[in-house]
Write a structure and sequence with these properties.
- Chain B: Residues 127-177 form the RNA polymerase sigma factor 70 region 4 type domain.
- Chain B: This is RNA polymerase sigma factor.
- Chain B: Residues 25-91 form the RNA polymerase sigma-70 region domain.
- The complex is a heterodimer.
- Chain A is mostly helical.
- Chain A has two domains: 2-52, no CATH class; 80-169.
- In chain A, 69% of the residues lie in helices and 0% in strands.
- Chain A has helices at residues 2-16, 21-33, 35-52, 63-72, 80-83, 86-110, 137-169.
- In chain A, helix 6 packs antiparallel against helix 7.
- The model of chain A has no long low-confidence stretch (mean pLDDT 81).
- By secondary structure, chain B is mostly helical.
- Helix content of chain B is 72%, strand content 0%.
- The chains are: A mainly alpha, B mainly alpha.
- At the A-B interface, helix 1, helix 3 and helix 4 of A face helix 2, helix 3, helix 7, helix 8 and helix 10 of B.
C-alpha cells in the first residue's frame, strides 16, 4: 500500500511537472520499462486531464451589477497600517511590562536568601537591598492607581471598537 | 472600459476613485470566486450571497492589498475565511480531512444532484458532480489548483498552511476524487475510454 502511495505521489509530481530532472529521467525509464508504472501513469494522467476539464460555475447575470450597487454607498477603508496607532500598542506593552517588573521586584524582595544552601554565593547580597521605600503605601497606591486607570482606558477602547464593528455590520 | 489593464493597474484606479474599474475585477474573478464558494456552500443561492459578500469585503479592504502576492491569491484568502465563517454561522459542520464519514455525509447532502446525473453524461458535468461530492476542503484545493491557476505556494498562502501540507492534501483530494468517480461514475468513465 505504502509502495503504491509512493508510486502515485511520484507520478503526480511527474505529471504536475514538479519532479527534479533526475527524478523525471528515472520515471521516464520506469514508465517505459515497467507495465505497472505505465498503467498507473495512464490512469493518473487521465484523471488529471479530467480535473482540468471541470468547468467554472457562473453566478447570475446581475451579479456584478448587484455588487456595484452595494459598493456605490461604501468607501474603501484606510489601510490597516494607517490607523493602527503605535502609541496604543506601546501603551499596552508598557502596561504589561510594568506589571511583570513590579511583581518580579516584589517577589525578589520577598525571598529570604540566607535560607538557601551555602555552597554557592551570589555576588549581590539581596537581603541588604532596601526596597521598603519602593513598596510603602504611597508608591503601591500610585502604581495600582496607574494600572487601574490604564486598564480602564484600554477596556474602554476595546468596547468602543466592538461597538463600531457592530454598527458597521448593522 | 479598462479591460486591457492588469489587476494592479485596476486596483490603483479603484484606489484613485474610479469605482467602475472594480466592475472589471469582479467580472474577471466572479466565476472563480463563485465556484469556490459553491464548493463550500453546495447551494447556488448561498454561494451567490457569499460571493457578493466576498467582493464587498475585498473592496472595503482594497487599500490593504500591497501587491506582494497576486490579487487572486489575496482574494482567495478572503474567499476561504468568508466561506468558513459562513459555514460556522450556518452551524454546518466543517468536516476534518481525517474524518472517514465525510464522504457519506457529502453523499447524502448531494443525493439530489446525483439524481440528475442520468441525463448529464458529459465529461465536464461528471467531473463537476464528482467534485461536488467531495468535502469542502478537498473540493477547494482541487478547484484552486486546477481551475484558479494557483501554485502550491500560493495555495499554501490562501489556506495558511505549509506548502508540503498542501501537496499532501492535494494528493489525498485527488485520490478521493478518483474514488468518487469510480464509485459513482464508473460506467461514464469507461464510456470515455
Amino acid at each position: 500500500m505504502s509502495e503504491q502511495l509512493t508510486m502515485e505521489e511520484r507520478l503526480w509530481e511527474y505529471i504536475d511537472g514538479m519532479s527534479t530532472p533526475e527524478e523525471k529521467t528515472v520515471i521516464d525509464q520506469l514508465i517505459e520499462a515497467n507495465a505497472e508504472w505505465r498503467a498507473k501513469y495512464g490512469e493518473l494522467l487521465e484523471a488529471h486531464q479530467l480535473m482540468f476539464s471541470s468547468e467554472l460555475e457562473e453566478p447570475s447575470m446581475r451579479f456584478t451589477k448587484n455588487i456595484m450597487e452595494e459598493i456605490a454607498v461604501l468607501q474603501i477603508a484606510p489601510a490597516a497600517k494607517s490607523y493602527i496607532n503605535k502609541k496604543i500598542i506601546w501603551g499596552i506593552a508598557i502596561f504589561f511590562i510594568t506589571i511583570i517588573a513590579g511583581f518580579l521586584i516584589y517577589g525578589i524582595g520577598q525571598v529570604k536568601w540566607s535560607s538557601g544552601s551555602d555552597g554557592t554565593k551570589i555576588p549581590v547580597d539581596f537581603s541588604k537591598i532596601d526596597l521598603s521605600p519602593m513598596f510603602n503605601n504611597t508608591y503601591i497606591n500610585i502604581f495600582m492607581m496607574l494600572n487601574v486607570v490604564l486598564g480602564l482606558f484600554l477596556f474602554d477602547r476595546y468596547l468602543a471598537s466592538k461597538r463600531r464593528e457592530r454598527h458597521k455590520e448593522a | 472600459m479598462s479591460t486591457g489593464q492588469n489587476d494592479n493597474e485596476l486596483i490603483s484606479n479603484v484606489l484613485g476613485g474610479d469605482q467602475q474599474a472594480y466592475a472589471v475585477l469582479v467580472d474577471r474573478y466572479k466565476s472563480y470566486v463563485f465556484t469556490l464558494a459553491l464548493r463550500f456552500t453546495k447551494n447556488r443561492e448561498d454561494a451567490e450571497e457569499v460571493s457578493q459578500d466576498i467582493f464587498i469585503k475585498a473592496y472595503r479592504a482594497l487599500a490593504d492589498f500591497r501587491g506582494a502576492s497576486k490579487f487572486s491569491t489575496w482574494l482567495y484568502t478572503i474567499v476561504n475565511t468568508t466561506c468558513i465563517t459562513f459555514l460556522r454561522k450556518k452551524r454546518l459542520e466543517v468536516y476534518s480531512l481525517d474524518n472517514e464519514n465525510v464522504f457519506e455525509v457529502a453523499d447524502s447532502q448531494d443525493s439530489g444532484l446525483r439524481a440528475n446525473l442520468v441525463e448529464q453524461k458529459s465529461r465536464v458535468n461528471m467531473v463537476n458532480q464528482a467534485i461536488s461530492l467531495l468535502s469542502s476542503d478537498d473540493a477547494e484545493i482541487i478547484t484552486l489548483f486546477y481551475k484558479a491557476e494557483q501554485s502550491l505556494d500560493e495555495i499554501a498562502k490562501v489556506l495558511g498552511i505549509e506548502t508540503n501540507a498542501v501537496k499532501v492534501r492535494l494528493h489525498r483530494a485527488r485520490t478521493r476524487l478518483r474514488e468518487k468517480m469510480q464509485k459513482h461514475f464508473a460506467a461514464e468513465v469507461n464510456d470515455l475510454n
